[in-house]
């Protein structure tokens, strides 16, 4: 009899307890606002222009979408795959192709074109901004400096031989990564099988310093505050002496790293810097958080099939990244995964976060998603 009374009370409490509505949940959750399919596979990351529009380089075309998910226009640029576009504050986009820079206005009309010869190489050139408000076109054969009106300023031809200028082009060189800030322009250059170096150059082509990186298979560069530059480097092989490494350098230092951090993986993504003093990168299906000041590890979170470079929302300090099995992941500031959202294909490119907190994600199927990460609703306590 006693057990029957206890059971009856338990059932009464169960049915009398009201169900909490979804908005009272203590967990964050994603919501798809809209999606735009059939944009093509991107050749570089989605970018937000100064006019609030989204620019998607796909093959030899630049596709533009507004914040409501409407495709506005597309422009064909050259005959080769486009590289990473560069924006300026004067209403222009500068797009690298095969040994060229093409200016495109924010409304899609064409501007000037700067073209050079880079020999037999068919690879897309890399373009960065840098000191002196110049555009820097990085080719295996030379570094070209061009102003924003398309006027040639100077070039450095003989990369591998100090500061000498020469008309002789050295064969076999390749550019692995490039970046620039208001103090220097940076390039990782070398030959497969012989090794690569990171170089810092001034706005007139003088080489400030070099740092030997060895025989590597991949690298990336990201500029930070106070003239710092960060490099992630993937070795050709992993062994006792060769590991994946992230470095911090001073732009006008002596070329010695301010700090370095090593991991036993060879697939490090480009780093993502946070205003809260942290740096994030992905390696070996693990998301790492480091202190920007000294490179010490804060936490490491294993994430199955994780693939893309991470992004961080500065307001919530939440980190987002894509996976090989079609999922978008959200990780909280303590390094724990909060949710996952399955999309229509793998996510190999970095998600984009606008200041208003919306996420914009492009899958390899060429679909652009706008996603809202809904915060937990206040309970009023």
Mean of all residue-level pLDDT scores:
87
Largest sheet: 4 strands, antiparallel
Task: Please give the order of strands in the largest beta sheet.
Answer: 1-32-31-30
Radius of gyration: 24 Å
Shape: globular
Number of strands: 32
Unreliable stretches: 1-25, 162-167
Task: Assign a percent range to the helix content.
Answer: under 10%
Verbal overview:
The chain has 381 residues and is mostly beta strands. Helices cover 4% and strands 45% of the residues. The chain is built from one helix and 32 strands. The strands form eight sheets. Strands 1-32-31-30 form a four-stranded antiparallel beta sheet, with no helix packed on it. A four-stranded antiparallel beta sheet has the order 2-3-4-5, with no helix packed on it. A four-stranded antiparallel beta sheet has the order 6-7-8-9, with no helix packed on it. β18 and β19 (228-235) form a beta hairpin.
Brief sketch in words of this structure:
This protein is mainly β and 381 residues long. The chain is built from one helix and 32 strands. Mean pLDDT is 87; it is low at 1-25 and 162-167.
Topology:
Elements: H1 2-16, E1 29-36, E2 47-48, E3 54-58, E4 61-65, E5 71-76, E6 86-87, E7 92-96, E8 100-105, E9 110-115, E10 126-129, E11 135-138, E12 143-146, E13 152-156, E14 174-180, E15 185-191, E16 195-201, E17 207-214, E18 216-223, E19 228-235, E20 244-250, E21 259-263, E22 272-273, E23 278-283, E24 286-291, E25 297-302, E26 311-313, E27 318-322, E28 327-331, E29 337-342, E30 352-353, E31 358-362, E32 368-374
Antiparallel strand pairs: 1-32, 2-3, 3-4, 4-5, 6-7, 7-8, 8-9, 10-11, 11-12, 12-13, 14-15, 15-16, 16-17, 18-19, 19-20, 20-21, 22-23, 23-24, 24-25, 26-27, 27-28, 28-29, 30-31, 31-32
């Amino acid at each position: 009899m006693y057990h029957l009374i206890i059971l009856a009370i338990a059932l009464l409490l169960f049915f009398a307890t009201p169900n909490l509505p979804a908005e009272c949940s203590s967990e964050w959750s994603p919501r798809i606002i809209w999606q735009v399919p059939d944009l093509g596979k991107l050749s570089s990351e989605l970018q937000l222009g100064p006019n609030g529009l989204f620019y998607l380089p796909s093959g030899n075309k630049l596709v533009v979408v507004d914040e409501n998910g409407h495709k506005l226009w597309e422009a064909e640029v050259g005959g080769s795959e486009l590289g990473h576009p560069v924006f300026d504050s004067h209403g222009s986009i500068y797009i690298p192709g095969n040994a060229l820079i093409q200016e495109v206005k924010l409304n899609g009309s064409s501007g000037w074109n700067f073209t050079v010869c880079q020999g037999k190489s068919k690879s897309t050139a890399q373009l960065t901004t840098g000191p002196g408000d110049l555009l820097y076109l990085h080719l295996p054969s030379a570094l070209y400096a061009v102003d924003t009106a398309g006027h040639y300023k100077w070039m450095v031809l003989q990369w591998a031989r100090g500061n000498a200028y020469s008309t002789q082009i050295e064969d076999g060189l390749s550019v692995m990564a490039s970046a620039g800030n208001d103090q220097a322009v940076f390039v990782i250059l070398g030959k497969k099988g012989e090794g690569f170096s990171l170089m810092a150059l001034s706005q007139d082509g003088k080489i400030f310093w070099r740092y030997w990186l060895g025989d590597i298979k991949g690298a990336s560069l990201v500029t930070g505050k106070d003239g710092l530059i960060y490099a992630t480097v993937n070795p050709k092989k992993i062994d006792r002496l060769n590991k994946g490494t992230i470095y911090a350098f001073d732009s006008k230092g002596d070329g010695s790293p301010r700090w370095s951090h090593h991991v036993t993986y060879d697939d490090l993504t480009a780093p993502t810097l946070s205003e809260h003093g942290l740096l994030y990168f992905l390696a070996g299906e693990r998301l790492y958080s480091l202190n920007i000041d000294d490179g010490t590890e804060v936490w490491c979170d294993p994430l199955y099939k994780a693939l893309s470079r991470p992004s961080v929302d500065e307001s919530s300090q939440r980190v987002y990244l894509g996976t090989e099995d079609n999922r978008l992941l959200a990780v909280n500031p303590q390094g724990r995964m909060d949710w996952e959202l399955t999309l229509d294909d793998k996510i190999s490119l970095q998600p984009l976060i606008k200041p208003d907190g919306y996420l914009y994600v492009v899958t390899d199927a060429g679909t652009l998603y706008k996603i809202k990460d809904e915060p937990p609703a206040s309970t009023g306590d």
